[in-house]
Structures are given as C-alpha cells and as structure tokens.
Design goal:
Elements: H1 2-12, H2 21-52, H3 63-70, H4 75-87, H5 92-100, H6 105-119, H7 126-137, H8 142-156
Length: about 160
C-alpha cells in the first residue's frame, strides 16, 4: 500500500501547465476516478473495522470516535462514513459501482440513507429500493439522486411508516 501512496504523490506533483487543454481535463477525470476508487477502499476498510470492533485495539469507544480522533474527521463526516460503510453489504450494486469508479461516494451515501430508512420499516424492501435508485445513479448529481430517493421512500412506504 505504501508503494501506491508514493506513486500517487509523484503523480500529484506532475506539472500540467505544458499539457493541452484536453489532457488537463483528462487528468481531472483520472483524479476523480482515483478518488472514487480510494473512497470505495476506505468505506470497505471502515466497514470491516466497524464489524470487527477493531477500534477497541486503540481504546476508542466507537468507530466514529476513532475516525474523529485518529483521522481528524468531523462528527458529520465520521457518521456518514460509518453509516455508509455499514450498509455497503446490503447495497451490492452501489458498492460495485463505487469500486469501479462509476458513481461517487456521495451517490452511495444517498443509497445508504435510503436503505437505512427502508430497513427500519421493512428490510425485505431494501434490495427493491436499491434497484430503483441505482437506475438513476449514473446520470444524476447527488442532490438530484437524493430527490429520487425521497420519492422512492414515499412510493415504497406509507407516510405514517417513515422512520424519523
């Protein structure tokens, strides 16, 4: 893993000034894909740490607390990462797309939010909700996908059943 980080650091130091516009745009697209793949790896690792309770090794009371203390994440960042990582196993299409770099971590956070809401009422509907949401994930921004997720929630669950 250390070798990968060294290579990324070397690439990050590349001078793009002499490249044509198309190549500069291509580099931005490449970096975004790298970020997505790295976020997928981070989410998988956090999920494994959380399931095992590995943060106890460092004396942390929770995965969220460890992320805040060791990685200096905000409370919101740590919560979102843990919640999303916990739900990746029940969101196989989103997990695979994140690993492939075809959706962003923000898209997967929306899917995790929907899965949490649906799971609280009817766990059997989580795969249905994921399928409905995934159809739109590749063509929408995260905020647009969030609106679709809200509509899916309304469609799948009566308003009185929505968890707070």
């Amino acid at each position: 893993m250390v070798g990968c980080v060294a290579v990324l650091r070397e690439l990050a130091g590349e001078d793009l000034g002499g490249l044509p516009d198309s190549a500069q745009l291509g580099r931005v697209e490449d970096w975004e894909e790298i970020v997505r793949v790295a976020q997928a790896g981070l989410a998988e690792a956090v999920g494994a740490v959380h399931r095992r309770g590995a943060v106890a090794y460092n004396g942390a009371p929770s995965t969220k607390a460890w992320l805040q203390g060791s990685l200096r994440m905000t409370s919101g960042e740590a919560s979102a990462l843990v919640d999303t990582a916990r739900r990746l196993p029940v969101l196989p299409r989103f997990a695979a797309a994140l690993s492939a770099g075809t959706v962003s971590f923000g898209h997967v956070k929306v899917a995790a939010w929907l899965a949490r809401k649906v799971d609280a009422v009817d766990p059997d509907l989580v795969p249905v909700a994921e399928e409905m949401l995934f159809e739109n994930a590749h063509r929408l921004s995260c905020s647009e996908l969030r609106q679709i997720a809200k509509r899916i929630l309304e469609h799948l669950l009566p308003a009185k059943d929505h968890p707070p």
